[in-house]
TrEMBL record:
Coiled coil: none annotated. It comes from Glycomyces algeriensis. SUPFAM superfamilies: Composite domain of metallo-dependent hydrolases, Metallo-dependent hydrolases. Residues 55-403 form the Amidohydrolase-related domain. This is Peptidase M38. The lineage of its organism: Bacteria, Bacillati, Actinomycetota, Actinomycetes, Glycomycetales. InterPro entries: Amidohydro-rel (IPR006680), Metal-dep_hydrolase_composite (IPR011059), Metal_Hydrolase (IPR032466), Metallo-dep_Hydrolase (IPR051781), OTAase-like (IPR057744).
Length: 411
């Protein structure tokens, strides 16, 4: 149940300005933030929570998380029971919420069922912006078949993260199928990847005409296309064709930066996944062929992040962790914090992420009219990002849609 809550003596994190504003009161009415300021009055019957100077900030947004991927052997998911995968996803989503992620975007795998389960309270987890199955060409990043297998199952209920389609007519139909289910975006594979068995990372995938067809279908539905891409060549083809967000982007160059700015597009780096795949990928099911490809993108990621930030590109937070490695979801803050200001890193997981989701003013900020997705943490994240990476020590309260999901203020 939601009600009326007043947080007093709060240090409010202004994510847009990158400032901590102390001595604030924040009134939550129902599932929205009603008022913010030093003199907000507590309505009769309101629950008053004294934060005693602790930081009150918006819930975190992970723009690239695969809630179904309970193993790093992505091809193997296709052979598992959808019920089993869904139950594993529900467990993982609850853990994500208790890390402070009140919203996630799943660019491949999650469907309308998981979205509805969270929205209706059947499962506890982040607000889920799902894309359905990612679209891949034959032999592309989403085609998990080994070289000797010709049969592939693309049924809607198969828990594979992708579907294969070729040619303008097929990709239009595939995009329409995902959009028909209520997908918030359409994910496509613009280049090769690490976790796929038969493609090269430096390949480009889908013809330009196929990419344009998918973009046209998404735009017709007032949605957008997210594109998996590593090399500048693949990134630039996608941006030129109208892809709105580039996932990963580790091998971008100066020409890519110009296109990001020209199209007001978004970059979603996922640096922590390459670090963890190098350290523990094998024990979580990552096949040897993928382990061999991982170093190609691991070393380039930080440089790409710096280039994008310095150029003023819209940068969002992503993790892309698989299987048991998903417990490191918050470590992306520490990796980025080594080269970027803390305010910029926090912005990527709040206000900029909200813009990508087309939820500006509703998510990622503590302002009147925003949804009451709020975290209470000990310490100042602007001074030390480690405040966010250790929830056991520092995360005291999680509120989502005006409901308290975790409360450790009395600890």
């Amino acid at each position: 149940m939601t009600g009326t809550v007043l947080f007093e003596r709060a240090a409010v994190l202004d994510t847009a300005a990158g400032e901590l504003v102390r001595g604030q009161r924040v009134l939550v009415r129902g599932n929205e933030i009603a008022e913010v300021g030093p003199d907000v009055e507590a309505p009769e019957g309101a629950r008053v929570i004294d934060l005693a100077g602790r930081t009150l900030m918006p819930g975190l947004i992970d723009c690239h998380a695969h809630v179904n991927a309970h193993s790093a052997d992505l091809a193997g998911l296709a052979d598992e029971s959808p019920a089993y995968v869904a139950l594993k996803a529900a467990k993982e989503m609850r853990e994500m919420l208790h890390r402070g992620f009140t919203t996630v975007r799943d660019p491949g795998g999650a469907d309308f069922g998981l979205h509805e389960a969270v929205a209706q309270g059947v499962a506890e987890g982040p607000r889920l912006y799902f894309g359905g199955k990612a679209l891949s060409q034959t032999g592309g990043h989403g085609d998990g078949r080994p070289r000797g297998r010709s049969v592939r199952e693309d049924h809607q209920c198969c828990p594979d993260l992708s579907m294969v389609c070729d040619g303008v007519d097929e990709v239009r139909r595939a995009a329409r199928e995902q959009l028909r289910t209520g997908a918030f975006h359409v994910k496509i594979m613009l280049s090769g990847g690490v976790a796929s068995p038969t493609d090269r990372i430096d390949s480009t995938q889908f013809s330009f005409e196929e990419i344009r067809a998918i973009v046209e279908e998404a735009e017709a539905a007032n949605r957008y296309v997210a594109g998996h891409a590593y090399t500048a060549r693949a990134i630039n083809r996608g941006l030129t064709a109208g892809v709105r967000s580039i996932e990963h982007g580790n091998l971008l160059d100066e020409s890519s930066l110009e296109l990001f700015l020209e199209h007001d597009a978004f970059l979603v780096p996922t640096l922590v996944t390459y670090e963890r795949m190098a350290a523990e990928g094998a024990e979580h099911g990552l096949p040897p062929a993928s382990i061999a490809k991982n170093p190609i993108v691991l070393d380039a990621g930080l440089r790409a992040l710096e280039l994008a930030h310095n150029a003023g590109v819209n940068v969002c937070y992503g993790s892309d962790l698989l299987g048991g490695m998903r417990r490191h979801q918050l470590q992306e803050f520490a990796i980025r914090g080594a080269v970027l200001p803390a305010a910029a890193v926090i912005r990527s997981a709040t206000v900029t992420a909200a813009r990508l989701l087309k939820e500006e003013g509703r998510l990622g900020q503590v302002v009147p009219g925003a949804l009451a997705d709020l975290l209470v943490v000990d310490g100042d994240p602007l001074a030390d990002l480690a405040v966010l990476t250790d929830p056991e020590a520092n995360l005291r309260l999680v509120m989502q849609d005006g409901e308290v999901k975790a409360d450790r203020l009395g600890d």
